[in-house]
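tool_call: predict_structure(chain=1)
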Amino acid sequence: MLTSRFSPARRMSRGRGQRGQNAASAFLTCVALFPLLAHAFLPATFKPFRAYSDASSTLVVPLSRTSTDTITSPFESGVKQGGGDDGPLPLTLENVEMVLDEMRPYLMSDGGNVVVSDIDGPVVKLELQGACGSCPSSTMTMKMGLERRLKEKIPEISEVIQAMPEGPALSTENIDQVLEGVRPFLMVAGGSISVKEISGLGGLQPLVLLHMEGNNQSLFSVRMEITQRILRNFMVPGLRVEWTDQVS
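tool_result:
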């Protein structure tokens, strides 16, 4: 990217002295550190950058995920995992790990993993890590993939449940720390964000209510990214993130 003569960053840095260098630096910071946000902002907010490249040039975001890319459970296809059937196994930590080892390559290929959190009688608690922990298909991964295979190999298992890792306390201060990572880009688009309310702590569905100001359409396109950052950071079961303009 940087060495290509078609690189937009390189074209920016060539022109107009220090101004060109600053534009290139801002572009690289945006696409390298926050690719998803950059993907949303570039079409609208960064139009001025086009002045530093030829009219026929197109700005690209090399690290961003296309809109059609989705993270799905590696077990959605229903393909049976693992090798041959050697008969039922007794319920032990070693046997659970052995069965999980058959399926870990599928999880790792999607940037995730699984570890045994606890075995409580016939109940096995597993913790999904990495991309699998925050994936919308984590329930399908747990029930249709891991639980099904474990029960096939170890009939003593009555249930496999997902153990949530302990994260930081859900507070306004800690949520603000997460939001600090996106505020610079919201400011570029003429917007701001703040925590309006936290409710339901200790309940089944705690709620974080966020308030966003600004009229730029790019602001709305990054809401999902902000929501996912909060869910990944706190890992609170049942946590919901909503916006003030969506609440009547």
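agent: The domain at 172-246 is CATH 3.30.300.130 (GMP Synthetase; Chain A, domain 3). Proceeding to next step.
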